[in-house]
Amino acid sequence: MMQAANRLQKALRTGSGLSLGAWQMLPGSNISRLIARTGFDWIVVDSEHGNIDDGAMHEAVAAIASCGVSPLVRIAANESWMVKLPLLSTVDDARSLAKAAKFPPAGQRGFGSPFAMEKFDGVTQTEYLQQANESLLTIVQIETQDALNNVEEIARVPGIDVLFCGPFDLGNNIGHPILDGTMHEELKEAVLKIQRVAKENRKASGIYATSGDQAREYADQGFQMISVATDAALLPAAMHSALTSARGSYVHSALNMAKGAIRGK
């Protein structure tokens, strides 16, 4: 039952394996539902860089799940009481995360919270305990030089399902930041290395894109889990575009300003 509800997991394990998602950085369950209803397979609720605290995260997860979309949580740090997409550097970090995500005997996750199973219609506590380990996806984000150096070992850790590339932080950490949208060749090679290592170890590969066109390029390269857009980026861009269209061209705006000046005399 729970595996059937995991849209992202189904997409990665069946068919083309391609799954497109979005990034939520602004708090509010209404925003969660608006994004979820556009057709994405999954949504990352960003508790690290986003303006989303623990309470807002729980509300967002419930709202996303209610729309039949897979919610993911980007945790603020690699702590045992948080799960998914942490900043990590070593294979020990990956092992700790995998153990924290799973119930015994596969891991060390504590059982008792009443909030997880209520996201699934009709799932009892016992059923949740029995199904959770096989239904969860545990994702590690490769975005530091150390993580890149250790990516082969990280990929071999049991319980890790996806290697997710954060190209902006990775670029900064390896000394080749993305400037004006341009990626250095060494960064491109690092990104492809993550994708290749994931494939060699039968793990899914994911990456953060900044546009639909870039997402398509990553899909053509073989990435399977691709973030297409963020609310924090698209909202001001859409507002700016609409305002620019309403104001018209520069010449039109200048003429209107001139007419206003003449009327004011």
Write up what this structure looks like.
- The structure is a single chain.
- The protein is an alpha/beta fold and 265 residues long.
- The chain is 49% helix and 13% strand.
- It has 13 helices and seven strands.
- A seven-stranded parallel β-sheet has the order 3-2-1-7-6-5-4.
- β2 (42-46), α4 and β3 form a beta-alpha-beta unit.
- α3 runs parallel beside α4.
- The longest helix is centred in the last third of the chain and has 17 residues, at 231-247.
- The protein starts with a helix and ends with a helix.
Q: Care to give the gist of this entry?
A:
It contains 13 helices and seven strands. By secondary structure, the protein is an alpha/beta fold.
Number of strands: 7
Give the distance, in angstroms, between the N- and C-terminal Cα atoms. 73 Å
Radius of gyration: 21 Å
- Sheet with the most strands: spatial strand order: 3-2-1-7-6-5-4
Low-confidence stretches: 79-86
Largest beta-sheet characterization: 7 strands, parallel
Count of DSSP-assigned helices: 13
SS-derived structural category: alpha/beta
H-E order: HHEHEHEHHEHHEHHEHEHH
Anisotropy-based shape? globular
Beta strand %: 5-15%
Helix content: 40-55%
Report mean pLDDT, rounded to a whole number: 84
Layout of strands and helices, then pairs:
Elements: H1 2-5, H2 7-13, E1 19-24, H3 29-36, E2 42-46, H4 54-66, E3 70-74, H5 91-101, H6 125-135, E4 139-142, H7 145-149, H8 151-155, E5 162-165, H9 167-173, H10 185-200, E6 204-208, H11 212-221, E7 225-230, H12 231-247, H13 250-264
